[in-house]
Write a structure and sequence with these properties.
This is Glucosamine-6-phosphate deaminase. The protein has 250 residues and is an alpha/beta fold. Helices cover 31% and strands 17% of the residues. Bound molecules: fructose -6-phosphate (F6R).
Length: 250
């Protein structure tokens, strides 16, 4: 389905700047009215770079978060509702009424998940979806075993993901066991994908995602079936990719 465009940069700050350029170019081209936002540490340098440049038109866009923990108080500083407000909505000057996060505190999270899927569709869909990748190959919280056709739903977080994310909490037991996540199919419906990857813990993951077999065992491998993927990565995480995919750094 076409190869991803891979941009490498020397460090996480430079990754953020390069990724911000991709977002800015989409805005300038009039191709960005709805942005999909990831949380976690990978896109933070991108959000900071965008907050610094505040390109024209940025404040008018709508946004959808990728996922949210189930059962975590929405006021908890690590709920994705709060993370998105703190790292995206406020610094980028977005209209809070146009920024949506799945309702992980809903009485019926499965219903909230289905409604979120419908809201995305009703909005006309996501123009540009920002993504990170988990150590186990998850995208959003589509853990290994997630199917290509999966939609927004409630999922169980794997022990590996809970351990990874315990860095954001005071105690590992505080990490929720479930989340509402956009599905693989939901993500692949976005018109364009922007995957941001940096840091030593991400080494080897891009190779598995883009040069390994397409399999639910490594959900990021489904990105191979999207025609418009841009990856911005530091050298450590781009290591091991064939030179066709990852030409020399700028
Ligand atoms: C976040 C998300 C996750 C993260 C992934 C990488 O909304 O859906 O898939 O992108 O776990 O996390 P970091 O960037 O913290 O390494």
């Amino acid at each position: 389905m076409g190869q991803p465009q891979i941009i490498t940069a020397p460090d996480r700050q430079a990754v953020g700047r390069e990724a911000a350029r991709v977002v800015e170019a989409a805005l300038t081209a009039g191709e960005l009215s709805t942005l999909g936002v990831a949380t976690g540490s990978s896109p933070l340098p991108l959000y900071r770079a965008l907050a610094a440049s505040r390109p024209e038109g940025l404040s008018e866009i709508a946004a959808f978060a990728l996922d949210e923990y189930v059962g975590l108080d929405p006021q908890h500083p690590e709920s994705y509702r709060q993370v998105v407000r703190r790292e995206v909505t406020e610094p980028l000057g977005l209209d809070p009424h146009k920024v949506r996060v799945p309702d992980g505190a809903a009485e019926n999270p499965a219903l909230a998940a289905r409604m979120y899927e419908e809201q995305i569709a009703a909005s006309g869909g996501i123009d540009l979806q920002i993504l990170g990748i988990g150590g186990n190959g998850h995208i959003a919280f589509n853990e290994p075993g997630s199917e290509r056709i999966s939609l927004t739903r409630v999922v169980d977080l794997t022990p590996a993901t809970r351990i990874d994310n315990s860095r954001f909490f005071d105690h590992p037991d505080e990490v929720p066991r479930q989340a509402i996540t956009q599905g693989v199919a939901t993500i692949l419906r976005a018109r364009r994908l922007l995957l941001v990857v940096h840091g030593p813990t991400k080494s080897g993951l891009l190779r598995r995602a883009f040069e390994g077999p397409v399999t639910p065992d490594f959900p990021a491998s489904f990105l191979q079936s999207h025609p418009q993927v841009t990856v911005v990565a530091d050298q450590v995480s781009a290591q091991g990719l064939s030179t066709i995919l990852a030409p020399a750094a700028r």
